[in-house]
Write a structure and sequence with these properties.
about 240 residues, alpha/beta, 8-stranded mixed beta barrel, about 45% helix
């Protein structure tokens, strides 16, 4: 039952402004007397049994509701990032779900940032263009997740209405220990800058990684160096009063 699921939120942090600029909604499965399970454990099962759309619908509505609640409480948290699974993108008309969640919550569409993995987008082939344009027409922001892992033609970056590229954590983990890896990340950052697309690095765990990214023009990071994903009340407790003093 969907009642066993809960959303946690991981901060998206601006290095330049040293402040919260958004949160990513991450679904967890509650287990009695055990830590919650992450999506790697249950998403494939839900995809197999045809329940991924029901979960995706719940996540979208709950994230929009929570974002609206924070705005109403006067908290300027930035954007709410929501993941779309490749299976959902392939099989279901998600724009209708997004529209109804926005209508239901009264959340301004520019507060939502939809994350689609690069490989999931590439699997769409010719449909990808039309799919992204329909989402863009809703007024939401679009981020390409796990960027650099999809082995795709870079031509789509020129054509598609993409707001943000999220550099995959696999590149960031070896950023300060592998020089070739570091050069690759630097060139991805330059690519984003030349196209005028915002860049975010995922999986940042150390100060050295954050420093390298900042010095090479990556303005936004996400990862345990800033904060693990937190339940809504803990996130509110930790960040909603920041900057008020």
């Amino acid at each position: 039952a969907l009642g066993e699921f809960v959303l946690h939120y991981q901060p998206l942090w601006s290095l330049g402004q040293d402040r919260l600029v958004g949160v990513e909604a991450l679904v967890r499965l509650k287990q009695p007397n055990l830590p919650p399970l992450g999506p790697a454990e249950f998403i494939p099962v839900l995809e197999d049994i045809g329940q991924i759309e029901a979960l995706g619908d719940w996540v979208t509505r709950e994230a929009c509701r929570q974002a609206r609640q924070w705005l109403d409480a006067g908290w300027e948290f930035g954007v709410m990032a929501i993941n779309l699974s490749p299976v959902e993108v392939a099989r279901h008309p998600v724009e209708q779900r997004i529209r109804s969640a926005l209508d239901e919550s009264g959340l301004p569409p520019e507060r939502i940032e939809l994350e689609i993995t690069e490989s999931g987008l590439m699997e769409q082939g010719a449909r990808a263009d039309e799919f992204l344009r329909r989402l863009h027409a809703l007024g939401v922001r679009i981020a390409i997740d796990d960027f650099g892992t999809g082995y795709s033609s870079l031509a789509y970056l020129r054509r598609f209405p993409v707001n943000k590229l999220k550099i995959d954590r696999g590149f960031i983990s070896e950023l300060t220990t592998d020089e070739r890896n570091a050069r690759l990340v630097d060139s991805i950052l330059q690519l984003g800058q030349s196209l005028g697309i915002e860049m975010l690095a995922e999986g940042v765990e150390t100060e050295a990684q954050a420093r390298h990214l900042r010095s090479h023009g990556c303005h936004t990071i996400q990862g345990y160096f800033i904060s693990p994903p937190l339940p809504a009340d803990q996130l509110w407790e930790r960040y909603s009063r920041v900057g008020e003093d």
